Amino acid sequence: MAYGRRYGMKVRIARFNNCCGPEGAWAGGREKAPAAICRKVTEVQDGGTIEVWGNGTAIRSYTYVSDMVEGIYMLTQSDLEGPVNIGSPQRVSVDQLVAIVAEVTAMKVNIKHVDGPVGVQARSFSSARIRSIRWRAETLLKEGIWLAYPWIEAQVKAQQAREREKKMGNR
Q1: Per-residue pLDDT tens digits for 73-95
Q2: What is the CA radius of gyration of the chain?
Q3: What is the CATH number for 68?
Q4: Which among 34, 102, 27 has a CA at the least distance from the CA of 65?
Q5: Mean pLDDT within 116-140
Q6: Nearest Cα to Cα of residue 88 among 50, 49, 140, 48
Q7: Is the whole-model pTM more than 0.70?
Q8: Does residue 170 have a pLDDT over 80?
Q9: Is residue 101 part of a domain?
Q10: How far, rounded to the nearest angstrom, does the alpha carbon of residue 162 sit from its chain's CA centroid?
Q11: Would strands 91-93 and 12-16 be described as parallel, antiparallel, or unpaired?
C-alpha cells in the first residue's frame, strides 16, 4: 500500500480464506484441514478412528481452488483497491468437516480428539467487497471434497505402495 501511495500505483491485495482442492499439500504438516482429514480417512478402514486436534468445535471456511482463482482474476480486472477478502461464506466445525468427508467416501469414521494446535475458535471474514464485483464461491465444501478426495486418495495409495516396495527391497 505504501509503494502504491508513493508511486501512484493502484494496489489490490487478495486476502485468502482457507483454500482446498487437489494438487496441494496433503501431508507433512503444511496441508489445510480438508486435505489432512481426507488423508486420515484414506489411511483407516471403514469404521476406523482418526485423530483430530482440539475438541472439534473450531469453525473454519474453505474455498475451492477454482473459485479462489476466479476471485483473484476478477479482483485484478476490477477497480477495487486495497485489501479484499476472497472466500466462501460456508462455515463448518472440524467435526462437521470430518462428517462431510465420511459422507463423500461412504465410510463410517470415528473421531478421537487429541491435544494439538487448534488456532482461534473462529475467524471473522467479510467478503462484501469481493461480492460487490459479483464474485461468489460456487463450490460448496461437500462438492470440493468430492472433487479433491480422489486425488488425495491416489497420493496416499502411491505413498503406501512406495513404502511397501522400500520394505521389500530392504529384506
Answers
A1: 999 999 999 999 999 999 999 99
A2: 19
A3: 3.90.25.10
A4: 34
A5: 88
A6: 140
A7: yes
A8: no
A9: yes
A10: 26
A11: unpaired
- The secondary element (H helix, E strand) that includes residue 65 is helix 65-76
- Cβ count within 10 A of residue 155: 18
CA–CA dist 46, 110 (Å, integer): 9
Q: Give the list of residues 6+ apart from residue 30 with CB closer than 8 angstroms, or none.
A: none
| Cβ burial, residue 58 (10 Å; 0-12/13-18/19+) | buried
19-75 pLDDT per residue, tens: 999 999 999 988 999 999 999 999 999 999 999 999 999 999 999 999 999 999 999
Query: What is the reported pLDDT for 5?
Result: 92
Instruction: Locate 92 and state its grid cell.
Output: 463448518
Domain count along the chain: 1
Q: Per the domain annotation, does 171 fall within a domain? A: no
Three cell numbers, residue 32: 489445510
Amino acid at 116: G
Instruction: Write down the pLDDT at residue 121.
Output: 76
Mean pLDDT for the chain overall: 93
6 domain residue, yes or no: no
Element (H, E) at 56: none
DSSP state of 53: E
Structural domain containing residue 156: 11-115+122-165
| Domain presence at residue 46 | yes
Length of the chain, please? 171
